[in-house]
C-alpha cells in the first residue's frame, strides 16, 4: 500500500494561509471610502476597483487615525498604479496648539532631569554640590530640549511628544518629512524668535501658513491632519 513520504504533504500550509488572511495584507484589508462627502463601506480592494477609485479619493482603514488620499497609501499605489502626488499643506497648527505642545515638552524634558537631580541631592550633604546641581539644571534642561526637538522633529513621527499629543507635526513647505539638517536649522533659528523679545513667535498671527520667524527662515511648517 502506498504511503506518502511526508505526512506534512497532506496538511495545509498554515504559514501561507496566515499570510493570505493577514489583516495587514492589502488584498484582504477593508477600506472606508468617502463618496460625495460621506464615508461609505468598508470595501475590499476588488470593490474599490468597481467603485472606480481615484488617486484623490479619501480612504481609511482600521489602523489609520485619519483619512488620506488614495495615492498616499503605498499599497494602493502598488495595486492601482497611482503616482504619489505632492500637495501643498492646507491645514496648519494654531498658535495655541503650538504653545500647549511646547509647555508639554518643557514638562516632559524637565521632569526627567529634576528627578535625577533630586536623587543626586539625596546622596550628598555638601551644600555647594547641591547648589551646583541646581544651577546645572538651568543649562542642561534647555540644551537637552533642543536636542530632543531636533531628533524628534526629523523622525518618522515628525514631532515631539507634545506635538504628537496635540496631533500636529513639522514638515517642509511641500508637506514632507524634514531631514536632520533642516531640523537643526529650524531649532537653531529659534534664537531669532527669542532674541526679538519673542516677537518672532507672534509672526504666526500675520501669515496664512501660521509660520513663526524660525519657520520662515528654515522653510518649515507646523501642520495638522485634515478632518473629513
Could you characterize the architecture of this molecule?
The chain has 228 residues and is of the alpha+beta class. The chain folds into 2 domains: 14-80, no CATH class; 95-224, no CATH class. It contains 10 helices and 6 strands, in the order αββαββααααβααααβ. The chain has helices at residues 14-20, 45-51, 74-80, 95-122, 127-153, 161-166, 180-188, 190-195, 199-202, 213-218, and strands at 31-35, 38-43, 58-60, 68-69, 168-172, 220-224. The chain has a 4-stranded antiparallel β-sheet with strand order 2-1-3-4. A hairpin with a 7-residue loop joins strand 3 and strand 4. The longest helix is centred in the middle third of the chain and has 28 residues, at 95-122. The relative contact order is 0.10. Mean pLDDT is 87; it is low at 1-23.
Break the fold down into its secondary structure elements and pairings:
Elements (H helix, E strand, L loop, with lengths): L13 H7 L10 E5 L2 E6 L1 H7 L6 E3 L7 E2 L4 H7 L14 H28 L4 H27 L7 H6 L1 E5 L7 H9 L1 H6 L3 H4 L10 H6 L1 E5 L4
